[in-house]
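Sample log: Formylglycine-generating enzyme family protein.
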Amino acid sequence: MIRFALALACLASPVAADITWQPNFYDRGRSLSQADEPDLILPMPCGGAMAFQRVDVFVDGNDRLSDKALRHGESSTQYGYRNYLRREHLRGPFQGNEPTKTYFFLARYELTELQYSALTDPDCGFRPSAIMTVPKTGVSWFEAQDISRIYTEWLLANAPDSLPEPRDGGLSYLRLPTEAEWEFATRGGETVDDLDYTGLRHPMDENLSFYAQFGGDGTAPVGTRAPNPLGLFDMLGNVEEMMLEPFRLNALGHTHGQIGGMVTRGGSYLSEPGDLTSAARTEWSFYNTRRGTAQAPETVGFRLVIGATALGRTGAEQIGEDWRARFEGDPDEVDSPITILIDMIDESIDPTQTEALETVVLDLATAEDAARTARASQLNATLELATTTLSMIRFQGRRAVSIQDRIDKDLADIAFLEGKTDQVSIDARDQIIASMPQFEALLADVTQSIRNQVGAYARGLNLLADAQPAEVETAFTIYRSELESRNGDEFLDLLVKLRDHLDVLIENQGLSADALIELALRP
C-alpha cells in the first residue's frame, strides 16, 4: 500500500522535488567536520534530500571489460572463513571525459529515520528534527530493497534529471551496495596509496573514537564523527550496514558455492574496537525463526548506492567487440591457441571430444585473463617503484651536490690559509684537513648509492620497454589518475620525467649507466 499511495501523492504535487529541509537534516557532518560539499544531492519526498559521494574507480575506460582488481579481506586467519584475503573486481557505471575514471555514487550517510519517514509517509505528517537524524534500524533486508525501489520510482516520476546518466545511456537507480563497493569505499578508494588501502582501517589522524560510534552508547546522529578519506561518514560503527548480495564463505582462493544469509559490514555501536575493521563481515539469517518474520535487527541499517545496468542502452555492441577481442586474442597472431581450438571444435563430430575441447578453451581463456590481470598489476607496481626510485636518485643527487659544495669550500679555505703562520690559521687549516676524509667518504657512499639506485631504475625501465606498448600506455594513464587523486604533485612531475626517460631508452635501444645517471639527475 505504501508504494501506491506515495506514488500518487508525489505525482500530484508540482513542487514535490524541491528541497526545503535545512542542510543539517541531510548533510549534518559537513557543518560539524568542516567537510567538503557532497558530490551529489538528490531530492526526496516531503522536501527532503540525500547526499552522495562520488567514488572513483580507475580502469582502462576504453576497454568496456576492463575492471579494477582488488585485494580485500585481511591476512588474519582467526575468522578466515569469513574475512580472509580474497580477490574482487570493480568498475563504476558512470564515466566522465577522462578515459580512466569510472565511478559510482555512495550515500554519504546511513539512511536516517527522517529520510525513511519521507519515503514511507505519503502525507509528510512529521516535522524534521535533529532527533530524527539517527540511522534507521529495525528494517529487514527485504524492506531495504523496497525502500530503494520506492525512492527510485519517486525520482523517475518527479526528478528524473537529478539522477546521473550512465556512460551507455539508460537509467540509473538506487540499491544496496555490493560488498566490493562498500569495502573499496570504506578503505578510502583511490584517495589512499596501496599500503594504507590494505590496512585494517582507513588512515586516521586521530584515535578510532574520533571516526566511529562504538562502546555500547547507542546510535548517534549520522555525521557526528569524522569522515573517511572519501568524505563518507560512519562507515565503521554506529549501525551495521546491509549489503546487496547474500553471504558466502571464503573457501581459500574462491568464494564458496553455498549461498547464505544477509551480510552486514562495518560493525555497530555495540562492537568492540577490534571488530571495527574494513574487512569484518557478519552473516544474519534473513528470517527471525523465533518470531517467524523477516529479520530486522535494531543494530542494523543501510546506505544506498546509485547503480545502473551493465549493458546500458547503447553499450552491448562495444562490449561484444571487446569480449570477442579478448576471447580471440591478438589479431596479429593468426594461429593463436584459442583460434586453433575453435577450428577443431567446429570440425569435431564427436560430442565427447567437443566438450573436452570447449573445457580447454575455457581454461585457456581463464588463464589468459589471469595473465592479463597479472601483467597490469606488474606494470602498475613497476611504475610506482620506478617513480619512487627516481625520487630517491634525485634526492641523493642533491645530497651529492651539497657534499661536493662543502668539499670545494674546504679546499678553497685550505688554499686561503696556506702560508699563514699565525696559530689560529694553522689550527683552522689542520682542522679542515682532518675533516676532509669524512666528507670524501660520505660523497663516495652517496655516489655509490646513486649508482645502485640507477641500476634498479634501469631494471624498471627495461621491464616497461619490453612490455606491450598499449598496456604500458594504459598503466601510465591509470597511475597518473591515481596520483592526481592523492594530490601527488611531486610524483606527477617525476612520472613525466620517467616517461621521457623510457622514450629515450627505447629510441637508443638502451643506455649506459653514466648516461642514465645524467638523465635521471637532469633538472
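Observation: Residues 501 and 507 are 10 Å apart (CA to CA).
Observation: The radius of gyration is 30 Å.
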